[in-house]
Write a structure and sequence with these properties.
The complex is a heterodimer of chains A (about 325) and B (about 400).
Chain A: H1 8-18, H2 29-45, H3 62-73, E1 88-99, H4 114-117, E2 141-144, H5 153-156, E3 168-171, E4 173-174, E5 177-178, E6 182-186, E7 190-194, E8 201-205, E9 212-216, E10 221-224, E11 234-237, E12 245-251, E13 256-258, E14 264-272, E15 275-281, E16 291-294, E17 304-308, E18 314-322
Parallel strand pairs in A: 1-18, 3-7, 6-12
Antiparallel strand pairs in A: 1-14, 2-13, 2-15, 4-5, 7-10, 8-9, 8-11, 11-12, 15-17, 16-18
Chain B: H1 3-24, H2 37-46, E1 49-50, E2 61-62, H3 67-81, H4 96-100, H5 103-109, E3 114-115, E4 121-122, H6 124-128, H7 130-133, H8 172-181, H9 196-226, H10 233-249, H11 266-278, H12 284-287, H13 305-308, H14 318-326, H15 351-360, H16 375-388, H17 401-404
Antiparallel strand pairs in B: 1-2, 3-4
Helix pairs in contact in B: 2-9, 3-9, 5-9, 8-9, 9-10, 11-16, 15-16
Classes of the chains: A alpha+beta (about 325), B mainly alpha (about 400).
Chain lengths: ~325, ~400
């Protein structure tokens, strides 16, 4: 039995660790260096908590934490806001152009079912930048971000854009490419997903509110419904053919538009006299550096324009984005 | 005692003291929740660019959240959820949050490991889960990097093995089943030996971390869109309620399992399942013609895709991967379709488990659901899949057209 009381064990272990000879009482040059090395090691490792590179979370504001908890306990503390009422309707329309030569679209990396997906041995090009003859940008989405659902529907949402639109929107695929690269619809509508190919697909919708992933046998079809609107376009993809993708955005009301190769868009009958946020989106083009000319226009910041419209006015906006 | 001896004694004492210091360490830092920096960067990248502070002639720079933004997120989350040692719940007037989470149980799960005088355990989450799933539930505990698959990151609120359809959280019982059974083929063990009460605490704590993570994501989005968080109790309660509502509603969204219409008939039904496997089910496309899980090996899961994979399904550049690695992400790994010949099924091997995986698909993965097949057809697939493990690879198999035809 080792005698633990006199520290022999520790000493033996220490001496082994330090690589010193049995006779600890002898010359200590060796252990002196070792002690120094050990001290250096200890210092260099330090006492930080050794998480990966992640920086520590900032310290929360304790006073504010307490204040929030007290306010919640006291039954809210919400103040009755006086809501502004819309004063009529206004329309925004315009054109989006890419200035300069758009980068060429790479070919899809077809790795499977080549006879169907790359007919004639040629892979189809991707659709990142689809532009018209004069640089008009297709597949850009414009939508109203402002939440109108709180107010009186009669005043806030024009009858042409009311929520609750029903019916089916078709979303087909041919030769392993989605026919519609960017699709916008009301969340109350039903998406009819079709497969016009002779191979099986699956259509995975990465919606933040209503994700789904349905298997589509050759020439099959399925439907998808949505539990609410998405805050931005989400990806539709196929796991069997990983190069396939498209974008879908669902909105509760009808204030949205997608451009085609004419680059034009229109948000008709928006509520006037109230502050609105209008969002511009494209899968690759950056609106932040765009130039916007037209009535009452402001700079696009964070892909957004904040504006209060005058009633019975049509705003014409000409938006130019420098090509990357 | 001469000088040399004194010196050597001092040195010896010094060596021992230093060794003790190194062995014992410098005390434990207080556990804290870490911010979801990976998600933050994804959201930041959606925010676009702004003018270079050096002047308009320089290239524009990406917009990034500020220190104040991060502090706001941290303060809001602490007000709603407390800390790893002292959990808290910002309760709503309707009592919805209280329906989903029980603060008393969470207190048993939180904090350092230990027990009261009467034996009531504390710190159950840190005792059983945190070394893999991390204190924050980010799936990045100390052992996580060594595991394949990586432990689940709860903060997305996505769980694979459940009875609810995609997009709906798992039920309380689904999580309990995973804890009791473990996940075969992974590092996730079974916790069947724990008391029922303790399991209940752990399920609660996992839900707490998942809900916290989802609320954090919404706060990151708000701060990215509005420059600041509306710190009113009303706004924060709304966030908590909207996430809690999803979890509360999960139990009513369970997908029913329809019974097969005919009795099990081995020969015919397995053959029918096989036909579906290669045909209308399109299973062979990913699980492979030999069912070894080698039909589609280049895809990624939903915890990896948002930062590591570009739109057309290829891996992002090394620079992008490195950027996110520095924010705490693990090296991306492909998600592989299950090798169906091993008889190891992660979501459970009961026929009903396989039925659910096939019918609903698997959340967070490329596995789609079979909504177009009838219940009987799904059962045929179940029988076929369960039979595959018994089919020796050397068995002379009937060669059918679908199996060998190159559709390319």
């Amino acid at each position: 039995m080792p005698d633990f009381s006199n520290g022999n064990v520790t000493r033996r272990v220490t001496s082994r660790l330090l690589g010193t000879s049995k006779s600890m009482g002898g010359s200590c040059v060796c252990s002196q260096r070792a002690v120094l090395a050990l001290a250096l090691l200890a210092v260099s490792f330090g006492c930080d908590d050794k998480r990966r590179y992640v920086t520590p979370a900032p310290t929360p504001d304790a006073t504010e934490v307490t204040a929030i908890r007290v306010a919640a306990g006291s039954g809210g503390g919400s103040t009755a806001e006086t809501l502004m009422e819309p004063t009529g309707w206004a329309t925004i329309r315009g054109t989006i152009r890419l200035v300069g030569t758009p980068p060429p679209n790479p070919l899809y990396n077809v790795t499977k079912d080549n006879s169907v997906c790359a007919p004639g041995g040629v892979s189809p090009p991707s659709e990142v930048y689809v532009v018209g003859e004069e640089g008009q940008l297709a597949d850009a989405v414009i939508w109203l971000k402002t939440d109108l659902s709180e107010g009186d529907e009669e005043l806030w949402i024009h009858e042409s854009a009311r929520p609750g639109l029903t019916g089916e929107v078709e979303f087909d695929q041919h030769a392993c490419v989605f026919d519609t690269h960017v699709l916008a619809m009301q969340s109350s509508q039903t998406l009819r997903i079709l497969n016009s190919d002779s191979v099986g697909h699956n259509t995975k919708l990465d919606s933040e509110v209503s994700a789904s992933n349905v298997t589509l046998p050759a020439n099959g079809s399925a439907t998808a419904t949505f539990r609410g609107q998405d805050r931005k376009p989400f990806k539709a993809s196929c796991a069997i053919h990983p190069w396939m993708y498209a974008w879908i955005i669902t909105r509760e009301n009808g204030y949205f538009d997608v451009t085609d190769t004419t680059g034009t868009f229109e948000l008709a009958h928006l509520p006037a006299g109230v502050p609105l946020d209008i969002v511009f989106w494209h899968e690759a083009a950056q609106f932040d550096s765009s130039e916007i000319r037209g009535d009452g226009s402001t700079a696009i910041r964070r892909s957004r324009i904040s504006i209060t419209l005058d009633p019975d006015t049509v705003y014409e906006w000409d938006i130019s984005i420098p090509a990357p | 005692m001469n000088d040399a001896t004194t010196k050597s004694v001092i040195l010896r004492c010094g060596a021992i003291a230093l060794t003790m210091l190194v062995v014992v360490g410098c005390g434990q830092p207080e556990a804290e929740f870490s911010l979801n920096l990976v998600r933050t960067r994804i959201v930041e990248n959606e925010m676009g660019t702004e003018e270079n502070p050096l002047g308009a002639e320089h290239p524009r720079v990406p917009i990034r959240l500020t220190e104040e933004n991060f502090e706001e997120i941290s303060t809001a989350l602490t007000a709603m959820f407390g800390t790893p040692d002292e959990p808290y719940l910002l309760l709503d007037d309707e009592g919805l949050v209280a329906k989903v989470l029980n603060l008393d149980l969470l207190r048993l799960g939180a904090g350092p490991v230990g027990s009261d005088e009467d034996g009531t355990p504390h710190g159950l989450y840190r005792e059983h889960c945190a070394h893999c799933h991390g204190v924050t539930g980010d799936g990045a505990g100390p052992t996580a990097i060594f595991l394949n698959p990586y432990p689940r990151d709860y903060r997305e609120g996505l769980f694979k093995f459940k009875s609810t359809p995609l997009g709906i959280p798992p039920t309380h019982d689904d999580l309990l089943t995973t804890l009791e059974e473990g996940i075969p083929g992974t590092a996730m063990p079974s916790f069947k030996l724990l008391d029922d009460d303790e399991l209940e605490v752990l399920v609660q704590y996992v839900k707490y971390l998942a809900i916290r993570g989802e609320v954090e994501e919404r706060l990151i989005i708000e701060v990215s869109e509005e420059d600041a968080i509306d710190m009113s109790a009303e706004n924060l309660t709304n966030y908590l309620v909207s996430v809690a509502r999803k979890w509360e509603g999960a139990a009513s969204m369970v997908m029913p399992v329809e019974q097969p219409s005919a009795n099990y008939d081995e020969e015919n039904q397995i053959a029918l399942g096989r036909e579906l496997f290669f045909g209308a089910g399109t299973c062979a496309k990913c699980h492979g013609d030999t069912q070894l899980g080698d039909g589609q090996t280049t895809d990624y899961d939903e915890w990896t895709k948002p930062w590591a994979v570009s739109d057309d399904g290829t891996l992002e550049s090394n620079d992008v991967i490195q950027e996110f690695r520095e924010l705490g992400a693990f090296p991306p790994r492909n998600i592989l379709p299950r090798n169906l010949r091993l008889g190891v099924f992660r979501g459970g091997r009961r026929p009903v488990d396989i039925y659910r995986r096939i019918r609903n698909g698997i959340e967070g993965t490329p596995m789609p659901g079979q909504q177009l097949l009838s219940a009987d057809e799904v059962w045929y697939l179940v029988y076929y899949v369960l039979d595959l493990q018994h089919e020796p690879l050397s068995r002379r198999r009937v060669i059918v057209a679908e199996q060998t035809r190159d559709i390319n």
